[in-house]
Amino acid sequence: MKFSLHTPCLFVALSICALLYTARVGESTFVPTRCLCTQTYRVVRGPFVDFSVTSKGPHCSTDEIIVKLQRNNKEVCLSPDGPQAKRLKKCWNRKSKNGGNKKKCLRKRGNKKQGQKRGSKQSKGATS
């Protein structure tokens, strides 16, 4: 077998073509390199349109819960230790395991105490 200069050049050219073919541009995913939330709030008033949860990792040492407000579409970060963030994260974990819709986590919760007070007022009014 005769060894010539064309054989190694052809091999290198084919290797480069194969490498470029496998390194095609695919769908990119945003991976943050630092925490997205610089300021957090324990409680935020107003209805929410959407929210996202980013678990802690090499980019950030805490979980990040970002809500989008309905009144101005502004994104606000909730403190992971606050009551709203804990409720949203718990619901988000439950929905992601079951494959449910995370928008259901944004519904307002009914207050049981108000319903009991109303019922007791109605019963008092009915007896007098």
Automatic annotation (TrEMBL):
Q: Which superkingdom does the taxonomy of this entry point to?
A: Eukaryota
Stretches the record annotates as Disordered = 89-128
Q: Where is the signal peptide?
A: 1-28
Q: Name one GO molecular function term.
A: chemokine activity
What does the record list as GO biological process?
immune response
Alphabetized InterPro entries for the sequence: Chemokine_b/g/d, Chemokine_IL8-like_dom, Interleukin_8-like_sf
Q: Which residues does the UniProt record annotate as the domain Chemokine interleukin-8-like?
A: 32-92
Cellular component, GO annotation: extracellular space
| Compositionally biased residues, Basic residues | 89-121
Q: Which UniProt keywords apply?
A: Cytokine, Signal
Name listed for the protein in its UniProt record: Chemokine interleukin-8-like domain-containing protein
Species the sequence originates in: Albula goreensis
Q: What is the lineage of its organism?
A: Eukaryota, Metazoa, Chordata, Craniata, Vertebrata
